[in-house]
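Researcher: Please predict.
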Amino acid sequence: MRIALSSDHRGTSAIRQLHEKLRREGHEAFLVGDCSGNVACDYPERAYEVGQMVAGKSADLGILICGTGIGMSIAANKVPGVRAAVCHDELTAQLARSHNDANVLCLSADLLGQRLIEKISEAWIAANFEGGRHARRIRKIAAMESGKDPATITD
């Protein structure tokens, strides 16, 4: 699996540890952007870079970490084709993929410990989109990105 990872300054340590874990597990995981040092790193830039990679298919999935995960999610969801979800446990991560076909996972560096970040990421990566009734809803989201009324999607 090709996974693009990034963070703002608050998530730098967590994303680096997660990056190493994913690489050890055989994923083609790569860090995007540099938030090293004591310099503030703005999450919209990192979310845009990872979002572009996922939407452009140069990465299968993306994982973003900021203080709460919320800012990254808001920013990443502005990139057409990105379905970013903030998850705080393994169940919401699994459902984000299986029901919502989330292609970007957003996590909190401040509220989750490293072990939980890794467990949530594992559950999310392992899950598969179920399709079925959920596929119609994903098509409605895509219609909204094109400026269309989602009610016009009926199949």
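Model: The chain has one domain: 2-130.
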